[in-house]
Amino acid sequence: MKRLWAPWRMEYILGDKTQGCVFCTELKEDHDRKNYILYRGGKAFVIMNIYPYNNGHLMVVPNRHIASLTATTDDERAELMRLTLHAELALTEAYRPQGINVGINLGRAAGAGVIDHLHIHLVPRWNGDTNFMPLFAETRVMPEHLETTYRKLVERLMAVFRRLPFYK
């Protein structure tokens, strides 16, 4: 039998689990680097997925605890889309993906891990990124540590904001 060691997972397995909404909890804290929050806006924020499908997997999340697009205000929707656009540019510049999946999972049946707080996923993709490891070994290989991804993307996202004004 072959083994794939992932000792960093033990912290998650044994660690205290967040009570309540993980997005609301992390947004209230003043530990953006620890929580992998890349940007805070007036109505929404950008955060890394700490259990990513691929390196650079980001989420754009409204500040307000709401479960669906229909619950958003015009201003929230506008900021969610602006941040999604800025995140797309930052990912493109930092990782040069051959594609990016952008999506929203509304409800558990649709695949939402956090079912009661709306969030938009951006997942960089490359031809061949689904290889034999996830298909046969049910294992994903992540070539870059989350800390490295955070440093790379926070710098790139700020560069995008300097180039493209957020509000017109």
Q: Nutshell version of this structure?
A:
This protein is an alpha+beta fold.
Short key terms for the protein model shown above:
168 residues; alpha+beta
CATH superfamily: HIT-like
**Helical amount among residues, as a percent range?**
25-40%
What are the segments in which pLDDT stays under 50 over at least 5 consecutive residues? 131-137
Structural class comes to alpha+beta
Structure description:
The chain has 168 residues and is an alpha+beta fold. It has a single domain, classed as 2-Layer Sandwich (HIT family, subunit A). Helix content is 37%, strand content 15%. It contains 6 helices and 5 strands. A 5-stranded antiparallel beta sheet has the order 1-2-3-5-4, sandwiched between helices. It starts with 8 loop residues before the first helix and ends in a 5-residue tail after the last helix.
Topology:
Blueprint: H1 9-14, H2 22-28, H3 32-35, E1 37-40, E2 44-48, E3 58-62, H4 74-95, E4 99-103, E5 120-125, H5 132-136, H6 146-163
Antiparallel strand pairs: 1-2, 2-3, 3-5, 4-5
Helix pairs in contact: 4-6
